[in-house]
Amino acid sequence: MRAETQAVVDEIRQSLTLLRRHLDWDNALKRLEELNALAEDPQLWDNPDNAQKLMRERSNLEDKITAYRKLEQRLEDALTLYGLGESEEDEDSLQEAHEQLVQIKAEVAKKEVESLLSGEADANDCYLEVNAGAGGTEAQDWAQILVRMYTRWAEAKGYKVEWVEESEGEEAGLKSATMIIRGHNAFGWLKTETGVHRLVRISPFDSQARRHTSFASVWVYPVIDDSIEIEVLDKDLRVDTYRASGAGGQHVNKTDSAVRMTHIPTGIVVQCQNDRSQHKNRATAMSMLRARLYEHELRKREEAAEAETAAKTEIGWGHQIRSYVLQPYQMIKDLRTGVEKGNAQGVLDGDLDDFLEASLAYRLDRGSQRGDQESA
Q1: Which of 19-33, 261-275, 347-361 is least confident?
Q2: Alpha-carbon distances of 98 from 1, 8, 103, 112, 258, rounded to whole Å
Q3: Rounded distance between C-alpha atoms, residue 272 and residue 212, angstroms
């Protein structure tokens, strides 16, 4: 086998080994057998919520196992074709087999990243909050650009976006916005986006066309259901009501229907204004608060204190996770992983997968390093 092709085959086999390990193959097969047996139990649907959860787990696990087996089979088929090409000295067959192997390599790498989405809440829908930093209209416009970027990304994934809160800037842009992104693994994909995002560009709001630096913070946390118990005491809450701003018709500006909820012990603040009913907005805000407290606990368990601290500090220099430079050159760089992309407009139009995949792998590597240190 030619050296170039052998190198591709070696990489595929190494990635398949890692993928098998991430899937915890033997236990995955055993769990699928258990889920198949439970699915045949006629009493399963006596508890519809539990049944749906079980069926989702079964479907997701079955998809992962099937995808792995298909990749293994495709590798064998490509190697068979390559072997025939070698024996018959058929250059076309050798080239076709090599191209198939390159495609398989890319797909295995993608599946390996997807296998990292195995955290406690990774499969959940998520809330995504964007808040403009200091800087007035320029920062508020940047916040709106980020909201559009994540919306485009979600739509390309086939996810559904629901608005919870949107506070417009005085002249343009957004002071803040919160949305729910619904879709399998929404939280898993986006959880590493929490942090400060920095923009450098020629400001469209500056008559002298000067370059400006703006900041906005992003916070991502999972939507949780009632099966997860999060206790919130009334004495720990401060609830404020105010008149909603932004879209929503005349009614939103005539009644104090919007709700802001502060959890005093942690300083966590959530707000909701998407409904005319203050009662419904309060219920939504409580769901958001429980989700934020749950995400807070997840972060503590993962020992990601640095991310927690960065998200709570001033939205400005020294805390950014990604830099978006549009002037004097175009370059978007993730400051954690070093991933760079020159197609800035593509990223702002939602092409985020390279950044998301790299940050997930980076997070896994940090976890492995901590585990190695603890073992030592």
Answers
A1: 261-275
A2: 10, 8, 9, 21, 60
A3: 31
Integer Cα distance of 27 and 117 in angstroms = 17
Question: What phi and psi, each to the nearest 5 degrees, are found at residue 259?
Answer: -125, 130
CA-to-CA separations, 19 to 102, 268, 298, 356, 375, in angstroms, rounded:
17, 37, 24, 18, 23
Mark 141-180 as b/e (b = at least 16 C-beta within 10 Å).
bbbbbbbebbbbbbeebebebebbbbbbbeeebbbbbbbb
Residue 270 tokens, joined: 């959530």
Cβ proximity of 308 and 296 under 8 Å: yes
pTM beyond 0.90: no
Q: Is 171 helix (H, G, I), strand (E, B) or coil?
A: coil
Q: What residues contact 262, with CB distance under 8 A and at least 6 apart?
A: 237, 238, 239, 240, 268, 269
Contact assessment for residue 364 and residue 116, using Cβ atoms and an 8 Å cutoff: yes
Would you tell me the crossing angle of helices 278-301 and 305-312 to the nearest 10 degrees?
Answer: 140
Q: State how far the Cα of 291 lies from the Cα of 178, in Å rounded to an integer.
A: 13
* pLDDT for res 248: 43
Per the CB < 8 A criterion, the answer to whether 225 and 216 are in contact is no
Question: In 3D, which of 123, 121, 304 has the Cα closest to residue 228?
Answer: 121
pLDDT tens string 282-306: 888 888 888 888 887 777 766 543 4
CA distance from start to end of the chain: 41
Q: How far is CA 199 from the centre of its chain?
A: 20
Give the distance from CA 180 to its chain's centroid. 12
Written as one letter, the residue type at 97 is A
CB 232 within 8 A of CB 290: yes
Q: Which amino acid is at 92?
A: D
Q: How confident is the model at residue 230 (pLDDT cuts 50, 70, 90)?
A: confident
Residue 223 · residue 127 · CB < 8 Å: yes
